[in-house]
Design goal:
The complex is a heterodimer of chains A (255) and B (359). Chain A is 40% helix and 23% strand. With 255 residues, chain A is α/β, with parallel strands linked by helices. Chain A has a six-stranded mixed β-sheet, sandwiched between helices. In chain A, strand 1 and strand 2 form a beta hairpin. The longest helix of chain A has 20 residues. The two termini of chain A are 33 Å apart. Chain B is 74% helix and 0% strand. Chain B contains 15 helices and no strands. The two termini of chain B are 29 Å apart. The N terminus and C terminus of chain B are likely disordered. Classes of the chains: A alpha/beta (255), B mainly alpha (359). Chains A and B meet through helix 2, helix 3, helix 4 and helix 5 of A and helix 7, helix 8, helix 9 and helix 15 of B. Bound molecules: adenosine-5'-triphosphate (ATP) and magnesium ion. Adenosine-5'-triphosphate binds next to strand 2 and helix 1 of chain A.
Chain lengths: 255, 359
C-alpha cells in the first residue's frame, strides 16, 4: 500500500495555475525526486501536502487516511516532516532548543507536572533533551548545541532544519532544496547523509532539488513539474533522455 | 562582524556578571523585609504604612508585568489591553466581597482569610474568560491589528464599567474591605512568578516561544499555534485579573479611571523596559517603576512625559530592554540542588568536548 497518495491536486493563485492535476504515489521506503524549472510549483505541492495551503481540487491520503484539509500541525503529527526552501529556523534560540521544540509534543507531560515541577517533569525534560541531543549528534551538530541558530553557517543551518524535522519522528520527510547554497563538498556529505538517514530510520523521502547531479545519484524515481503539470516521470535514466524534460530545461544541462 | 555586534548587544558583560548575584541578593532582601514586617506582631512597627503600601503596589505590578510578558514577550503577541483584564478582576472580586454574606460557622476574621483568595481566584477566572472570548477571534490578527483590537477591548471594558448600574459608573465602588496586605500581595506575586516561570521553561513554554520566533515553522513542527496563542492570552488575563482584585482590596476604592489606556501602557512599559521575554527583567522593571514615581514625587505632573521619553530613548539605544531575554543566573541554586539531569548533560557535553579536542 502507498504511504502517500495524491489525486488530481490543483491550486491556482488568482489566474496563475501553480499546481494542476498533480498525481503522486509513494511506497514506503522510496526516495522520490521532484524537479522542475523555477516557479514550476514544487514548493506549492509541499505546502499543500503539509496543510499550509488547501487545494482547490484533489485529495491527499497519508498512511491510509485522508489528510486533505487538515491543519498543518495535525499533518505533522501524523508523520510528515519537512524542511523549508528559505530556511525557517527559530533564529534567536539555541540549536538545541530548535530541536527540542520539534519533539516537544511527544514529551507529553501534563499541566500538573509543568506547574508543580514534579518528578515526571524532570524525567520528560531529560528525555526531551537527550532525544534532541541525539538528533544533533546524527547531523554532526552536537558540538554547536548551545549556539544561537542564526549564527550558524549556511550549510549547518540547512542541516539543523533536517535535524529539527527528524525530531518529530516523521515517516515521510519532505526536503525542499536541502543542498541550496552548499558547496560541492557539503553537497557530497549531504548525499551520503540522506542515504544513511533513509536506511537508519526506514524513512520515505520526497526531495525537491535543483542540483541535478544530486538528484540523479540519489533518487530512484523522479517527477518533473513544469507550469504546475507533471511532464515526465521515471528513473533518472529515463528522465535524462526525455525530450520534454530537455525542452523544459531549455539551455540548462540535464546531466 | 555583524554577528559579533548582535551577540555583544545580547549579553553585555555587566549584566552577565551581576545576573549571578541577582537571585540570592533579591531573596535576601525579601527575607529581610519579611522579618522586619513580621516584627509587627511583637509590637515593633519598623516598616511604615507608607512603605508597606509601596511594597504592595510593587507586588501587584510584578504580577501585571510578568503576566503581560507571557503574552507579549514570550509568545510574541502584541497586546495593549492588560488594564481591561485587570478591571474585570477588580470589579468582579470587589463586588463578590461586598455581596458575600456572613458565614455562620467561622468568625468574621477567619471568613476574611478564607474568602479573600477565593474571591481573587474568581476575579482571575472572570478575566481569563474575558481573555478567552476576546482571544479566539482577535488572535488570528497579526501584529499591529492585534494591538488595536486589544486596545479597543480595554476601552470597551472601561466604557461598560462606566455605564452599568452594578459598577456604579464613574462614581466607582467605595468602601471595599482592605483585605490586601503585604503577605497576600507577596504570596500571589511569588505564585505568579513561579507558575509563569515553570510554564515558560516547559514544553508548553517552548511552544509559545516557537510561535514568537516563527509561527509557520512552529506549525510545521506540530505545534497547535492557535491553541497556544489563546492559552497564553488567557493565562496572562487570569493573572491580570488577580492583580486587579489585589489592587481593589488595597485601594478600597475602584473606578473606571484607574483602568484606562495609560494603565495598560504603564504595564507595557515595564515589560519593554525589563526586556520582552525576560521574567527577571519584568520583575525588576516593575519594582523600579513602582518606586521611581514615589522618589520623584515633585515630577508627578510629568510622569507620562517621562515614561514616553524613557521608551523612546530605550528604543533607540537598547531596543531589547535592559535584560534582553536573559534571566537570573540560577547557577547559585543549581549548586545547592544539583539535579541528575543537569549533571548528566554536563558530563555528556564534557565528554564530547574532550573528544573534539583529541580528534
Ligand atoms: N502564496 C502565493 N501567492 C501567489 N502566488 C504564489 C504563492 N505561492 C507560490 N506562488 C506562485 O506559484 C508558482 C509556483 O511557485 P512555487 O514556489 O511552488 O515554485 P517552485 O517550483 O518551488 O520554484 P523554485 O524552484 O523557484 O522554488 C510561482 O509562479 C509562484 O510565484
Ligand atoms: Mg520552491
Amino acid at each position: 500500500m502507498a504511504l502517500l497518495k495524491v489525486e488530481d491536486l490543483s491550486l491556482s493563485f488568482g489566474g496563475l495555475r501553480a499546481v494542476s492535476g498533480f498525481n503522486l504515489e509513494i511506497k514506503p521506503g522510496e526516495l522520490v525526486g521532484l524537479i522542475g524549472p523555477n516557479g514550476a510549483g514544487k514548493t506549492t505541492v509541499f505546502n499543500i501536502l503539509t496543510g499550509f495551503y488547501q487545494p482547490q481540487e484533489g485529495r491527499v491520503f497519508f498512511d491510509g487516511t485522508e489528510i486533505t484539509g487538515l491543519g498543518c500541525h495535525r499533518i505533522n503529527r501524523l508523520g510528515i516532516g519537512r524542511t523549508f526552501q528559505n530556511i525557517r529556523l527559530f533564529n534567536e534560540l539555541t540549536v538545541l532548543e530548535n530541536v527540542k521544540i520539534a519533539y516537544q509534543y511527544a514529551g507529553g507531560y501534563s499541566w500538573r507536572h509543568t506547574i508543580f515541577r514534579t518528578g515526571s517533569y524532570r524525567r520528560y525534560e531529560q528525555e526531551i533533551a537527550e532525544w534532541a541531543l541525539s538528533r544533533l549528534e546524527i547531523l554532526d551538530l552536537a558540538g554547536k548545541a548551545e549556539e544561537i541558530a542564526k549564527n550558524l553557517p549556511y550549510g549547518e543551518q540547512r542541516r539543523l532544519e533536517i535535524a529539527r524535522a527528524l525530531a518529530g519522528r516523521p515517516k515521510l520527510l519532505l526536503l525542499d532544496e536541502p543542498a541550496a547554497g552548499m558547496n560541492p563538498q557539503e553537497t557530497m556529505e549531504l548525499l551520503e547523509l540522506i542515504q544513511w538517514l533513509r536506511q537508519e530510520f526506514s524513512l520515505t523521502i520526497l526531495l525537491i532539488e535543483h542540483d541535478m547531479s544530486l538528484v540523479m545519484k540519489l533518487c530512484e524515481r523522479i517527477l518533473v513539474l513544469d507550469y504546475g503539470m507533471t511532464i515526465a516521470e521515471g528513473s533518472p535514466e529515463e528522465i535524462r533522455n526525455n525530450p520534454r524534460v530537455i525542452e523544459a530545461y531549455l539551455g540548462e544541462e540535464v546531466s | 562582524m555583524e554577528t559579533e555586534t548582535t551577540t555583544g548587544l545580547e549579553k553585555p558583560e555587566a549584566v552577565e556578571k551581576w545576573r549571578t548575584h541577582l537571585l540570592p541578593a533579591g531573596l535576601a532582601i525579601l527575607v529581610l523585609l519579611n522579618l522586619l514586617i513580621f516584627m509587627e506582631h511583637f509590637g515593633f512597627d519598623i516598616v511604615s504604612r507608607y512603605y508597606k503600601g509601596i511594597l504592595i503596589l510593587a507586588f501587584i505590578n510584578i504580577i501585571l508585568a510578568v503576566s503581560l510578558n507571557l503574552i507579549n514577550g514570550i509568545t510574541g503577541l502584541f497586546s495593549i489591553g492588560h488594564a481591561g483584564f485587570m478591571a474585570v478582576g477588580a470589579y468582579v472580586s470587589a463586588l463578590l466581597t461586598l455581596n458575600m454574606g456572613r458565614w455562620e460557622l467561622v468568625s468574621s476574621q477567619v471568613q476574611a482569610v478564607l474568602q479573600f483568595p477565593l474571591v481573587l481566584l474568581a476575579g482571575g477566572l472572570a478575566a481569563a474568560l474575558a481573555g478567552l472570548v476576546i482571544g479566539i477571534p482577535t488572535l488570528r490578527l497579526r501584529g499591529e491589528y492585534l494591538a488595536i483590537a486589544t486596545l479597543g477591548f480595554g476601552e470597551i471594558i472601561r466604557v461598560v464599567a462606566l455605564n452599568l448600574n452594578i459598577t456604579r459608573g464613574a462614581r466607582g465602588i467605595p468602601s471595599i474591605p482592605n483585605y490586601t496586605n503585604f503577605w497576600w500581595a507577596q504570596l500571589f506575586a511569588v505564585l505568579t512568578v513561579v507558575i509563569i516561570w515553570n510554564i515558560v521553561h516547559s514544553n508548553h513554554g517552548r511552544a509559545m516561544v516557537a510561535i514568537r520566533e516563527d509561527e509557520i515553522a512552529a506549525e510545521a513542527m506540530g505545534i497547535n499555534t492557535t491553541y497556544y496563542k489563546v492559552l497564553s492570552f488567557t493565562i496572562g488575563a487570569f493573572f491580570a485579573g488577580v492583580a486587579g482584585g489585589l489592587l481593589a482590596h488595597h485601594l478600597t476604592f475602584i473606578s473606571p479611571k484607574g483602568f484606562d489606556v495609560l494603565k495598560s501602557i504603564e504595564i507595557l512599559l515595564m515589560v519593554v523596559l525589563g526586556g520582552l521575554g525576560s521574567i527577571t527583567g519584568s520583575v525588576i522593571a516593575a519594582i523600579v517603576l513602582t518606586a521611581l514615581p514615589e522618589v520623584l514625587r515633585f515630577l508627578q505632573a510629568y510622569r507620562m512625559v517621562i515614561y514616553a521619553g524613557t521608551l523612546v530613548v530605550l528604543m533607540i539605544f537598547r531596543p531589547q530592554g535592559f535584560f534582553g531575554r536573559a534571566e537570573v543566573n540560577l547557577a547559585f541554586f543549581k549548586s545547592l540542588f544539583r539535579s541528575r539531569v543537569e549533571e548528566e548533560m554536563k558530563s555528556r557535553s564534557e565528554e564530547r568536548g574532550g573528544n573534539g579536542g583529541s580528534a
